Amino acid sequence: MKKFNLILVSLFLVMIFSCKAQQILQPNLAVKILGTWISNDEPEYKIEFTNNGLQREYINNKLQQEVYSYKLISTCGNNTRNNNELFLKIFTNENDATCDLLNGIHTDSNGVKTLSITTERGKLYLFTKQ
Question: Residue 26 above 80 pLDDT?
Fold first, then answer.
């Protein structure tokens, strides 16, 4: 019986710490995404995420007319996240939004940061932090 209670307590603690880790993850990514990111496929294309929730696009270092709002969220429409992934919800106008999957931000051994986004249509985009 003691062994069973120990297992239950252990499972409970794992659940609590897992939830805490997920709560910490979202704000961490919200800070890490800030800044300018250069497309790995098209170096002339850049996106910038600001701390006031705006996404700006640049082509050949020229700001494009479209400035969007964005949010990092755990569910978007009928989509829910898996593991520690979040959705990058981009508001293209007041009534329209896209929900891309923010796969994560990874730092390699040289300190280079890569942002990985999968669009609603399944296309993978990689960006390097400027």
Answer: no
- Altogether, the residues listed in the chain come to a count of 130
| pLDDT tens string 42-64 | 999 999 999 999 999 999 999 99
* Number of CB atoms found within 10 A of residue 39's CB: 16
| Dist CA 70 CA 99 (whole Å) | 10
What's the average model confidence in pLDDT over 13-29? Answer: 49
Which candidate, 66, 92, 82, 91, places its Cα nearest to that of 118?
82
Q: How confident is the model at residue 113 (pLDDT cuts 50, 70, 90)?
A: very high
